[in-house]
Structures are given as structure tokens and as C-alpha cells.
Amino acid sequence: MKIKPKITPIYQTSVFKFEDLTELELYFGEPGSRYLYSRNGNPNSDELADKVNEWEQGAGAVATGSGMAAILAALMACCQAGDHVLCAADIYGGSSSLLNQELSRLGITVTYVPFEHLYELSPFVQPTTRLLLCETISNPLLRVADLQRLTQECHQHSLKLVVDNTFASPVITRPLALGADLVLHSVTKYLAGHSDVTAGVVVAADPALAARLRQIGVLYGLTLSPMESWLAVRGLKTLRLRMREHSANALTIAEFLQQQPAVRAVYYPGLAAHPQHELARAQGAGQYGGMLSILLADDTEVVNRFIRACQRFPFAPSLAGVDSSLSYPLGTSHRYLTSEQQAELGITVGLVRLSVGIEPVEELLADLQAALQSL
Description:
By secondary structure, this protein is of the alpha/beta class.
């Protein structure tokens, strides 16, 4: 009986069989025609990479074991010992820790570029500078990078532009279409979407760079497992619908929070008062994502009361699931920055990040209102 599954099966195997030496030689002679060992590639991890590559309109992609592994693969594809990289100062804390603590040991140095200087890189570029790493929408203050301008500035200096597109997703922004060289995601977040997968993906605009990414994935052992790949592909099937609901709920909540006396500031690119609102509207096709941050009083006890009072926004150090949550950048994602760096970035005691899910928005509003009234 011939089986024709509608959904790709889970190839939960570490190794694949060969009939004889002839078939083994075909594996090495015709790359991609067969599978050998799941670290080298698996139907499930390849399916995830191919689908995200299609979303991002790239020349090839690799699926990795986490978002951090995706960042590592992207950086190692472009750099070697003695090289220098630029990184937007507004960046996920794990990215800066990787650069500061690990890649520095390999002889790769980094300079952080303040957001207001991203479009004039001349003072920061060195003869060994290879790339600029930035985020489409920054974590946690939701600043929006003009990717077309960044592309022009980077390519003028012969730099690769590497964009972490996790907060936006390809539903909102496709960095490669705007000129970026590499785009990466923590698939753990919006692409998988259900807080049950840890994964990453990197997509390249150039076939040669895509081939280098695949080599790094194999040799560094970054390839994603079959089961997690299968779960992530399942999540991708509802990505467009989920992002629409995340964005609509977040905008409603941001507008509500603007009116609350206990909230000193709301950071959300969908608000007309946001400094990059028009850019976000044009670059994001009218959607702004499900992430926002608020500033409460710079008082640990006030923040603690708010966290304890929220019922529909559990305190969790991650984001982007279908269920809402909140996080505390000063104590989680950016805790290893110096106090001076935290202050420069505006990551203060009162800053709270909200990941708005797809629940009925009136329930989320009621929860936030009750929590704010407790302060």
C-alpha cells in the first residue's frame, strides 16, 4: 500500500541507511540527494529551513538548535579571528553576551553603535570590520531600524548587514527584500509560536553565503532536531493569522496604557507618538507586532506589585507565544550589561516588557487595569 501523508512525518532517526557503497558514493557526489546523519541534515530540519527561506525570499537557510545558535552561525559565516564587527547598541542582551564573552575569545572584536548613529558608520568602521548586526524592532525598547538606509550605509563600507527579525517576523518585515545579507530568527518566538519549541534559523541572500551557513551548521553541530523542526513547521502554518491578532491586540493595549496614570511611557511602534511610527507603518505594511514595553515608577516594589497582580500576563523570561506574558529586561535579558550601559539604553528599574498574545483583548485589558489599580 502506497502511503501519501498530507503532513511530513517526523523522521526521528539519528542516522540513515544505505544499500551499498555505490549509494554511499552518490551521497557525497550529489549533495542534497540523500541523508546520512541528522547532524548533517534531516527531512524535518530541511523542511523548516526551506519554508522560512521561502518566507524571507532568500537563497538558502539552516535551522539551528536555538536563536543563539542562529546568531552564532550568522556571525561565524562572515567572520574569522582578527575581524571586527559592529553591533547596534539596542540589541538583545544574549547577543551582546555572545560577542563580549565568547567571540572575543576567538579574536573577534565588537563596537556598539548607538541607535542615533546607525546611519553614519564611518567613525566606527575599521579596516577589519565585516558586518553590522541589528534588530528590525529592538529588544526591549521597540526602536525600528530603517533597513533600506542601513543597507546603503553598510554596503558603502563593504559590510554585511545581519538582521535579527525575531520581533517582526517575515509577516511584518522581510529584511532581505530591503537589501540585508543575512536574516535570522529565534524560531522559539513567533515562528513556532506556542512556547513549546527551542529553535533558530538563518537565511542568506547569497547562495555562497547559504552554503557557508550549512557548513557551519554541520561542523559546529548546530542542526535542529527532527521533532523540534516538525513542531516549528506546524507553527508556521498559522503565522500569518497569529501575527494579525498579536498586532491588533498589542495596538489596543498600547493605546489603553497611554491613558493610565501609573504608566509613565509606552514603547510601541504602532502608536502615532512613537519616533519611528511612519517608518514602522511603511516597512511593516501596517502591522507592528505583539511586543511592547511600559515604564512604571523606578521602584522595585511597584514593579513587583504589578507583576504579582497580573494574572493573564505571567512573569516569564521569553516572549511571542500565543499566550501573553511579561518580562523584566533589567533582571533577565539585559542583566549582564554594566549599569552604565543599562542607563544609556533606558533599561531602568521601572521598565517592563509585555508580550501580547492572541487571547480575547478585553480579558487582557481587564487584567492590566486591575494590576495597575493595585499600584
